[in-house]
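PROTOCOL LOG
Step 1. Enter all chains and additional molecules of the complex.
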Amino acid sequence: MRKAYFDHIAATPLHPAALEAMLPYLKEAYGNPQSLHSAGQQAQAAVEAARDAVAGLIGAEAEEVYFTSSGSEANNLAVKGLAQAYQAKGRHLVVSAVEHLSVLNPVKSLEKLGFASTVVPVDRTGRVAPADVGKAIRPDTVLVSVMTANGEVGTLQPVAEIAKVCRDRDVLFHTDAVAAAGSIPLDVKALGVDALSLAGDQLYGPKGSAALFLKRGTRILPQIEGGVQENGRRAGTENVPAIVGLGKAAAIAGEEMEARTARLRPLRDRLLEGLPRLVDHVVVTGRPDERLPHHASFCVEFVEGEGMLLSLDLQGISVSSGSACTSKTLKASHVLLAMGLDHALAQGSLVFSLIDGTAAEDIDHLFQAFPPVIDRLRKMSPLYTQFLKERRS
Amino acid sequence: MIYSDKVMDHFQNPRNVGVIPDADGVGQVGNPVCGDMMTFYIKVKDGRLADVKFQTFGCGAAIAVSSMVSEMAIGKTLDEAMEITNKLVAEELGGLPKNKLHCSNLGADALHAAIENYRERQKGAGKAAPAPADEHEHEGCACPYCDAPLDEPEAGYCRACRVELEECPACGGITKKGAACIHCGAPLKA
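Step 2. Run joint prediction.
Step 3. Record the structure below.
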């Protein structure tokens, strides 16, 4: 059976060259980068080379890059660490309604410590209006956090414009670029951001590798305290193999981004345009333009996401869904609801995110498998029966 | 795969899917807001369920549960069918993941609703239409385990998944009574 993996947003495969680069640090080069002996210094050099590579991917200086264990940790560090470091100035935060939970939940816990927040809405395509961010900023606002791209609907945010709004009002701006970094060009200086999160498992690096960019001169309160690793801003013995893998993957992403996009975008366009033509009552979520180049997302009416996901999986096709049933918390995606989709439609969420190596045959395979899957589930669906009855009368 | 082979079999090859146009009883439970909606149709002959059909909007577990309930119910007397419990259905399916147990509740509930609808009709209530799915406002009062709307959060009980709930004093989230808070991990007094 042909295997077609359309779940980049969950995890990308590890690039073989990244694995190769990691292996010595899982085997003979096991030194602790904080040790002064040569085994330690070998590891230290590898970590610093990786820092250079990650900085290079986003136009940062090496010393502005701090390694963390995950995109979630980078987001937690940015939101809590910046809010706490600057609370003398004020205790108000601004975030968009479609942020990842690793941004939204830290904001919630800061509220329990006396911070206040404003959630900026998004339009039907999941996009934040920079003017709305401007309206949400108060004299006591210390931090705005709006993601670069949303993994569920692929929508790119006007990050540079939002950063300018924040700069003009003297407010720090963090962007969660976990879904975007490695897939679209990012330059922290051109964007004008103060902090940016990225993760290795979204750019063909290993899981457990991630980084926070923090503009030079920006204060932050560490969330993991202990030793002097990461310039005292994130304690804990460095995960050298993961960091090395992230560095290698970031270097490759920088070199390959254009070619990858050129390969994936036409396939994605075929998916984005083809699926709604193949089956009726399938709507695109997010934007047709201004979206991640490897990303296509839909809502299929009258059926529920998990049923589709399982049925496609049985045919070797891996996809994601934001339906309540597919989530472990059994809540429909806050992103789709924030975009104004009704609950029933949000339950039919289906997300395809292509990886390097996705072939035209994978799309063919999907196009063949998809209509019968939907047909079977709709025949079982009381909502579809109801729809047909109403259409007849 | 998160489901047992038996669940997957019923999901892939559900028994008794469909509509009975001249059903003797119809029951509908759930709504798309919660993620699952089931409609059961029954035909009754000589006090027994001669035919059962269903339609389900929902996850793999919801579909498998509906199928299993229909299979268990056919041929039973109405009283016997009323004794099919959610627990029995989950057991017959070889177990369900913990966060999917509420699906099994819906399956038996939908069958029972159809039987009750039949009994009401027998009482001469006429061919009443099935009760429409509840239109819940879904603002901030959902069960954290099954997402079903809670009538009164302070009542401390989710009827859909039958969990006793309370408000966590540490974080204010709704969580299971007496266990560690699922939101913030604070230990709660039993």
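Step 4. Note key features.
The CA atoms of residues 6 and 209 of chain A lie 22 Å apart.
DSSP finds 13 helices and twelve strands in chain A.
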